[in-house]
Amino acid sequence: MTKKAAVFLDRDGTINEQMGYINHLCRFHLLAGAADAIKRLNDAGIPVVVVSNQSGLARGYFPEELLTAVHEKMHSLLAEKGARVDAIYYCPHHPEAKEERFREKCNCRKPRPGLVLQAAEELGLDPKKSFVVGDRWSDIKTAANCGARSILVRTGYGRGDEQYIGSSQEIQPHKKCDDLSGAVDWILTQIG
User: Fold this and answer.
1) Does the predicted model carry a pTM greater than 0.85?
2) Is residue 1 part of a domain?
3) Which domain covers residue 147, as residue numbers?
4) pLDDT tens digits for 136-147?
């Protein structure tokens, strides 16, 4: 079976407004144009997978039930625009976790590649044909660590990361875009 190219999206600051920790459902708001951009990937038959660090869970800032509710709200808001994500993978770990079960040095916390590799294995995807889109340099490094192409979006932390730390980073994104819509424009030119 031929493994497919996919688009791996960071969540906070890429799909939804960067609010720090989303510790209440009312703090989750899709970014303008994000649903339409995801729908364009759906319409092109490209799998869309969310990969997100969720250390707020580990730190005890919110319960797992809230994270589930946030993801349900994201699915619902996307569906209203005819868009969908095919899967969500998140890392609940942090070395300073409040709960011992989350206190570990894992392979899934970005920039380590575990979330992408797990999704690729379970969904039949090829990271080397794929793209990682995010607003932090940890997303760019995640792409490098799994052989994917990377896109930095200037939403969320992206503009600040680009301006203040970007030039000092050894690993650079393959592309920089103002938002997810611009990233999808470029991705669609790359997948033929």
Assistant:
1) yes
2) no
3) 7-190
4) 999 999 999 999
